[in-house]
Amino acid sequence: MQRKYVTIYEDIANKIDSKQWQANEMLPSENELASDYHTSRETVRKALNLLAQNGYIQKIQGKGSMILDVNKFSFPVSGIVSFKELATNLKLDSNTYVKSIAYLDKSHPVYRKLEIDNHRVWGTTRVREISGEKIILDKDYFSDQFVPLLSEDICKKSIYEHLENELGLSIGFAQKEIVVEELTEEDRALLDVKGYSLIVVIKSLVYLEDASLFQYTESRHRPDKFRFIDFARRVK
């Protein structure tokens, strides 16, 4: 039998998804929800915690729970998370389309970004479709010193899963930069950009645990569909 708090979570999530409750509105209080669902406040609190974890609400101390805009997907900035992991965690209806896989000419500027002289760089371009809309263009580049040219099937599923589980690589950390750029012709050709003229780009240099630089990536996001989140602590 499904636990009561999961049933409450699913019912509230469905109401938010179907816009019965709108973004930026406050949910009823814990007491009101407990009365509506004929359960305890503790059970309601568990459901609210699950809603917060999945990006439906933001708890505001002393005020209650505010409904977030679920038309935007929350992407963690500080972590290193593959698209497959993110899609699974957020339960997204998603597809990946591999547009190209190829070695780069030695004159390509990515060689300088990856600080490579004696090895080759290969890249793959992938389009991410969520809920029927193509809204992310991922351009990933790897040093073949660490990552050999991979198959289309691996690139479609999860490169990081293959690197860690099959190649035994330990991915350590990344340096990230978030910028807003004008759409390129490639963006317009591959993404459903509607009337937008700008795109949000996360540029990352990714290192193994031994601090070896092995990947450069540009992840290009349609601006209306994402919020980029981080955890920050004030240090005095």
UniProtKB/TrEMBL annotation:
Gene3D superfamilies: Chorismate lyase-like, Winged helix-like DNA-binding domain superfamily/Winged helix DNA-binding domain. Keywords: DNA-binding, Transcription, Transcription regulation. SMART domains: HTH_GNTR, UTRA. InterPro entries: Bact_HTH_transcr_reg, Chorismate_lyase_/UTRA_dom_sf, TreR, Tscrpt_reg_HTH_GntR, UTRA, WH-like_DNA-bd_sf, WH_DNA-bd_sf. Pfam families: GntR (PF00392), UTRA (PF07702). It comes from Ornithinibacillus hominis. It comes from the Bacteria. The keyword Transcription applies. Transmembrane segments: none annotated. Residues 2-70 form the HTH gntR-type domain. The keyword Transcription applies. This is Trehalose operon repressor. SUPFAM superfamilies: Chorismate lyase-like (SSF64288), Winged helix' DNA-binding domain (SSF46785). GO terms for molecular function: DNA binding; DNA-binding transcription factor activity. One of its GO terms (biological process) is negative regulation of DNA-templated transcription. The gene is treR.
